[in-house]
Specification:
Length: about 300
């Protein structure tokens, strides 16, 4: 069922600076990019539990966090050159509207294990939100790195929140548009010379398997695949690269990073189970005998 809503007031005119992140003074060249997004409140519906759901055109996702309401958001991922340094992220907003609500916005579902109902029968029909305004700001961001279209790059993920909620006043605050301005320092140009050593395949193994694995190494090399056998102790002792990491699992992770960057490695083969290769475990109970193990963090 759709509901009518009422405009309390509108702040229009010049852009309002919502927030920003500024890094220390850069060194070298500076690049920038700017993007603008438009939003419009589509409708407010009543859910089957008696709560309200808010929909906004221009949003592409929802902000879901247990204990807080479900709100529309827009998530954008920017791909920057690998090793770029992000200098500033500015987000500005235009035309702020406030709308009265006749009830509470539906809360986010309970977290649960895969295979279980995320909305149990005792899901509350009433909710008390213990905050003034949510989210606290108009945007948030996070930075990572990885491979995009075959190239290493920096992933800058920006989450825009065109709707903020004030439960004490039973109102939402909506903006017409948001602009993102990003400045960053691209990496310094590096030599195009090939690495001094190049191994397409790196095999990481405990020393007890070294003899058996040498047959595989010789076979790969005979097929034109440059291959290197690296033992765990060699990683821990820094035989090839300086040791980094808080524990053995992280030391392996950073060794792989160095191998990719210094040896132009494409493939990694880990030999041995979790009793042989240090790993960090994560567990999601689906049945009484399930077990999921991940080497990465």
């Amino acid at each position: 069922m759709k509901l009518l809503f009422f405009i309390v007031f509108i702040v229009a005119g010049i852009p309002v600076l919502s927030g920003s992140y500024v890094a220390p003074t850069p060194i070298g060249e500076i690049d920038s990019l700017s993007v603008n997004y438009r939003f419009s409140l589509s409708d407010i519906n009543v859910t089957n539990r008696g709560f309200l759901s808010v929909n906004v055109s221009g949003a592409n996702s929802f902000l879901i966090q247990h204990g807080y309401p479900i709100l529309p958001c827009r998530t954008e991922v920017f791909h920057l050159p690998f090793e770029s340094k992000i200098l500033s992220i500015d987000v500005s907003i235009n035309n702020v509207h406030r709308y009265n609500l006749p009830g509470k916005i539906e809360p986010s579902p309970y977290p649960c294990s895969l295979g279980f109902d995320s909305n149990p029968v005792d899901f509350p029909c009433k909710v008390v939100y213990d905050f003034d305004v949510y989210p606290e700001d108009w945007f948030s961001y996070r930075v990572g790195c990885g491979i995009y279209r075959g190239e290493y790059c920096v992933f800058l993920t920006v989450d825009l929140y065109p709707v903020r909620y004030s439960p004490w006043d039973d109102e939402i605050i909506v903006v017409d548009s948001m602009s993102i301005d990003i400045t960053y320092s691209p990496p310094m140009k590096v030599s195009s010379d090939p690495p001094s050593k190049e191994y397409q395949l790196v095999i990481i193994s405990p020393s007890e398997f070294a003899g058996d694995l040498q047959v595989l190494v010789d076979h790969k090399i005979s097929r034109g695949v440059s291959t290197k056998l690296v033992l765990l102790d060699e990683i821990y002792n820094g035989l090839y690269f300086p040791v980094s990491g808080r524990d053995d699992a992280e030391k392996i992770k950073y060794f792989i990073k160095d191998a990719i960057e210094e040896w132009d490695t494409t493939f990694i083969l880990l030999v041995g189970g979790i009793d042989k290769i240090p790993s960090r475990e994560t567990h999601v109970e689906v049945s009484s005998n399930d077990r999921e193990v991940f080497v990465s963090d």
